[in-house]
Each structure stands twice: as C-alpha cells, then as structure tokens.
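Continuing the series of single-chain predictions for the mutant panel. This is the parent chain; the variants come on the following pages.
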Amino acid sequence: MACAQNREPRRCQSRPGGAAAARSLWVGLSAVAVVAGSLFTFFAAAASAQESVFDEIKKRGELRVAGVTYRPLISRRPNGQYVGVDVDVMGRVAKDLGVKLTVVDAEWATAVAGITTKKWDIVPATCITPKRLEVVDFTQSYLKLGGVLVFKAANPKGFKTVEDFNKPEVVFAVPPGSWAESIAKVAVPKATLKAFGQSTSADLVVEVVAGRVDAVVLDAPIQTTVAQGAFPNQLGFVPSAMQPLDVLPCPVGYAYFKGDKKFGEYLDGYLARIKASGELEGLFKTWLVPEHIKPSN
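Parent structure:
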C-alpha cells in the first residue's frame, strides 16, 4: 500500500538518521572484516616465520648440511663423497630425526649466508665469533681450536712454559699476516718473529726440526696431529699437542638459523648425549689421525 493511501503517515516517514546509521554500520562491518583478514594474514605469516627448522626438516624428510671443508671434520673425496667427524655426527642426527642426510656443495664465503636464506639447515666446523653470532646461532662448542707453541724436543733452550718463549733470542717462524703470527704477537710479544712468506705449516715445522728457528705456532688438534705423525718423538708442545693456548681461540660449533630455539635445544641435547656416551670422542679418535687430515686423501 502506498504511503499516500496510508492513514497513518508517520509509519511511512523515514526514521531520523536511518540511512546514515545503515551506512555507518556497513562501513563498520567492512572495517572489521578488513582488520580480521589482516590479522589472520599477519598471524598466519608469523606462525610460518616462526616454524622451527626442526619441523621443516621433519616435513621435508631431509637434513641439509653445508659441504664446507675443514679436515678432518668434513672433507670431499674425489668421487664427491663427504667424510669426516661432522659428516658422521650429522648422519647420526639425521637418523635420530628419521630423515635422510644431504650434504650440499658449499664454500666458506657463503656458508653463513646460506643459513639465513634457508639453502641449508646447518653449517658444520664453524668458528663461533661475535660477528657470526649477529646473523646465526650456534650449538655449544664441541671442539676448541687454538694455537700451540711447537719446538724441537732437543732444543737446548729448554722450553717448558709460555714465558720461556717470551724472549728476544727465541725465534718463531711465522707466515706474515697469518693467524699464527697474531697469536705469537699476543702470547710471546718479546720473541723475534721471522717471516716466511708462501710457506705451509709443514714447511715451518721443517725449519724447527732443522734448527733454523726455535718455534712455530700450529693449531691444535689438527696441525699438531699431522706434525706428530710426520716427526714422531722429535717435537715438543706448549701447553700440549691437544691443549691449545687461551689466545685468540676458535671454539667450533654448528651454525643454525638465528632465533630457532627449538632446533638449537634439540642439537645441544643431541650433542650432550653423544658426548656423555663417549661416541663423539670415539669419532675424533677415528678421524683425528694424519691420514685423514693430509690433503692427499
């Protein structure tokens, strides 16, 4: 019935503000829908971003490890196979997770960046440094590399302590600008440093054995193991062949995605288990021998 025909015209009149109220309600509901959608998208993205690499590995069915090289922790044979302490440890981790292990060819220059871009899940054999800790996290250290003062066992100067080397008459063979030179400058600042450019650690040890210099700085336990194998019973070590100086040390750990607490706790827990069982020590005994360290293998 038309309003003109309605005997009660008040009922046909628009209620004051009715259209405006409807528009406001519509706008409000639309805004709520937009906000709700945005929040859903935000929290979905956040949940995805916060998913642990641990869960990603389980879903993927594969643990990806960067194939950097540092003998005997990890090295690549001519046939492409990766071997070493870290390869064995990562193989055990993969088995524990129920996934396969894949070692991805990698270089040190891009190893850490590969963690942040999710190219691989772990970088093994990595020195834990403040700079690297800015972009990735590390497990507890499972190996400490550091400098050892190496001398000829028959040296008449009778070296027993670090201070015995800290004299001008004591001559060290050092590659210029090397880590070994840096350690010598800190540990024995009064000693004389003789530069040997383009020389390997093996070359420097020969200088020591020949008596042309008094000492050299080698890293322990890697280079010291090779030196012992090459010159059995001819060398002395301070503090010892397996115990480095606490000077510019390199604690070694496994690098993983920054802030991934779940994955980090798992890795630390697994390392603690194989340390306590003696399994990790057994792997080092197997691989930390000259034949597994020399580049010829």
